Amino acid sequence: MNIIHGVNGLLLPRFLSDTVRRMADVMPVVVVTGARQTGKSTLVRDLLPGKRSYLTLDDLDVRAQAERAPADLLARGRHLILDEVQRVPELLLAVKQAVDADRYPGRFILTGSANLLLMRSVSESLAGRAAYVTLWPLSQGELAGDGRPGPWSELLDEPVVRWPDILTARMGGPRSWREAVAAGGYPVPAIDLADPGDRAIWLDGYVRTYLERDLRDLASIENLVDFRRLMEAACHRLGRMLNQTELGRDLQLSQATVHRWLNLLEASHQFVRLPAWTPNRTSRLMRTPKAFWCDTALALRLAGHDEPDGAHLETLVLVDLLAWRDAAVGKRPGIFYWRTRSGREVDFVIESGDRLLAVEVTTTERPTAAKAAGLRSFRDEYGKRVAGGLLLHGGTSTEWLGDGILAAPWWRIA
Q1: Is 152 exposed, middle or buried (0-12, 13-18, 19+ CB in 10 A)?
Q2: Where are the alpha helices (DSSP H) in 75-209?
Q3: Quick one: pLDDT band at residue 2, thresholds 50, 70, 90?
Q4: Percent of the chain with pLDDT over 70
Q5: Which helix (H) or strand (E) holds 351?
Q6: What confidence score (pLDDT) does residue 68 get?
Q7: Which of 216, 213, 211, 206 minimizes the C-alpha distance to 230?
């Protein structure tokens, strides 16, 4: 399960690796997507060392063969990893033909950063032949060297009285949430670049690469300056209700343009829409989502903030939840927020089958019962469906704030 990350020789387990292996035991094609620089190439290359041939379409010779003689390229190994496959989307037709001629599990593992183009091509070419999974930036558990996801499954499955034991058994130790936000989850700045100035240089280069390379692959953007302004404005609104009309007015862009560009950001795994939770699944689609970003360090840099706030800590927790959700095999849990017309709210609602877990996030170091008001309201509203309420805070104490409501340090999710 250890994945060599390649930064200072560190071995970092990625818990998504088990999911990819399991999918490859069943499906002939596994597609791994995610934002640029999350570690997709490293993950797939080290799944079965020596047993899979690795080819990247960033290599000009490989790309030329994919364009001119795709069947010959696919004949270079019985089990192939094709990295950055969106560089030659036409190759997917050859993959489909190869699978239809000789179908066996794990024949191809494909990766790609430009998700919109990749998934459109995959959906047209590989329907019924491929399984899909997303690699998010490093979670707190992965950064701590633990290949397990956050404790969300245990919290849902175990009685609430067991929660303190579950959380204190985690290997993560006390850590400043401000430092964690500033480091983010992209492997290079999070692990190898401790100096804030070095991180800023890397993040600025990342944005430029995204704007000038990934967007060129995804779609024609007529004004990259305005597009970057939209990115910055979205990062100023972390954890807030997404109002596209307001965004367009502030940036002097049409609502249609804002809508299209946010879709591009979401498709390339930069921007995250968190949907609202209601008992009625249909009404969830009509509620206003909240806006988040896939990486806290990048969001902080784009917004030009020197100091993180509570919305950044929420984002840190959300990325951990998304990584846990997308590593699930079978029916995946849902991640939502909850808000009533009267203003009662909970930052995150996790839905798994008939079970609900309510999570509130606060930067306070001294949690009080008042901070758990939304959790109590949610528990009272939905009764036995609620496994319990968890208040993650910036301090060090683990304590009960009421019946079924536990306060614990945010780093206990590692």
Answers
A1: buried
A2: 91-101, 115-125, 140-143, 152-157, 163-168, 177-183, 187, 196-209
A3: very low
A4: 93
A5: strand 345-352
A6: 95
A7: 211
Residue type, position 327, single letter = A
For residue 38, which of 120, 145, 151, 139 has the smallest C-alpha distance?
139
Angle between helices 255-267 and 115-125 in degrees, nearest 10: 70
Residue in this structure with the two tokens 């950055």, named with its chain if needed: 84
Which pair of tokens denotes residue 164?
A: 């303190």
Q: In angstroms, rounded to a whole number, what is the distance separating the alpha carbons of residues 214 and 133?
A: 19
How wide is the angle at C-alpha 83 spanned by C-alphas 81 and 87, nearest 5°?
Answer: 135
Question: What whole-number distance in Å separates Cα of residue 107 and Cα of residue 296?
Answer: 36
Torsional class of 409: left (φ above 0), alpha (ψ -120 to 50), beta (otherwise): beta
Measured at the alpha carbon of residue 73, what is the angle toward residues 70 and 74, in degrees to the nearest 5? 90
The pLDDT tens digits for 223-279 are 889 999 999 999 999 999 999 999 999 999 999 999 999 999 998 899 999 999 988
